Amino acid sequence: MIDILTSYTFIIVALGTVILGIASGIIGTVSVIKGQSLIGDAVGHATFPGVVLAFMLVGTRETLALALGALLLGIVAFFFIQVITEHSRITLDGALALVLSSFFGLGMALMSFVQGNPDFDGTQGLSDYIFGQAAYMLRSDVYLILVASIISLMIFIIFYSQLKIYVFDPVYSRSIGISNKMMNFMILAITITLIAVGLKAVGAILIVNLLIAPAVIGQLWSNRFSHVLAIAGIAGAVSAFTGTYISTAGNNIATGPAIILVLSTMVLLSLLFARKGLLRRSMLKKKAGEY
């Protein structure tokens, strides 16, 4: 155990995933409260073809190029969701399902094409972007996550007061001059950015869980927005560190699934023992019945 915790590779990987977990937990809380968490799911799946297309264009698995490709396709996917919901009778959940399956199917088709094409070399690592494999993260990957997460958190802190009003009272926020469209776009832009840089660590399929589960944990333990944000950030960090350790210590265990399993366990424990958990509710009902 000590050897793993002190190894350079583990420290680099854990630093990247923990930072990503903190930022994703905090930013994802806003999306969950606003009921937009499934948009992140659709966008997360839609970023995968962007990774493959970027690889096809640049010919290398350079992290920044692949992240930019993922970011671009995430924006395109969100644009399609908006167009479908605003200019057709298809509901939001239908549009999300359509975009998610179509874009991810495109990514898998492109993946099959490049893997069977002798003109493209070095495709082995692309499959890691589906489920995530942080064990192969480089220092440059951690720097990219660090920069994206710090910028995202700085933007969140700067606009914290406006965001808080927008989240809980959009009518009042509009009346005092806060642009709800700008707030919504800002959160979605930050979310797409975190998804793009976190694909290598967690994967396109599982990245949305890192945005949703910490927020659920935070809401189960507290009603205060600031406390929910803090708990969500801590939950994201703890799950990222523990999942990375399990992935490093185990054999052939992908980092993304390991992190999500730890998060799911934390959600289950919170559902049972948290302030608003099932056991506490049953105890309060029992006491109320006695009186």
Write a structural description.
The chain has one domain: ABC transporter involved in vitamin B12 uptake, BtuC (Orthogonal Bundle). Helices cover 81% and strands 0% of the residues. The longest helix is centred in the N-terminal third of the chain and has 26 residues, at 8-33. It starts with a helix and ends with a helix. It has helices at 2-6, 8-33, 37-58, 63-86, 92-115, 128-131, 139-158, 160-168, 170-175, 180-202, 207-221, 225-249, 255-273, 278-290. It has 291 residues and is mainly alpha-helical. Helix 10 packs across helix 11. It comes from Salinicoccus sesuvii. Belongs to the ABC-3 integral membrane protein family. Keywords: Cell membrane, Membrane, Transmembrane, Transmembrane helix, Transport.
Provide a quick synopsis of the model.
With 291 residues, the chain is mostly helical. Helices cover 81% and strands 0% of the residues. It has one domain (2-208): ABC transporter involved in vitamin B12 uptake, BtuC.
Mean pLDDT: 85
Q: Any idea what the radius of gyration is?
A: 20 Å
Order of helices and strands: HHHHHHHHHHHHHH
Q: Biggest sheet, open or closed, and with what strands and sense?
A: none
CATH architecture: Orthogonal Bundle
Q: Provide the CATH top-level class.
A: Mainly Alpha
Which structural class is indicated by helix and strand composition? Answer: mainly alpha
Number of domains: 1
Assembly state here? single chain
Approximately what portion of the residues adopt beta-strand conformation? under 5%
Helix content: over 70%
Give the overall form.
globular
CATH topology: ABC transporter involved in vitamin B12 uptake, BtuC
- Count of distinct strands: 0
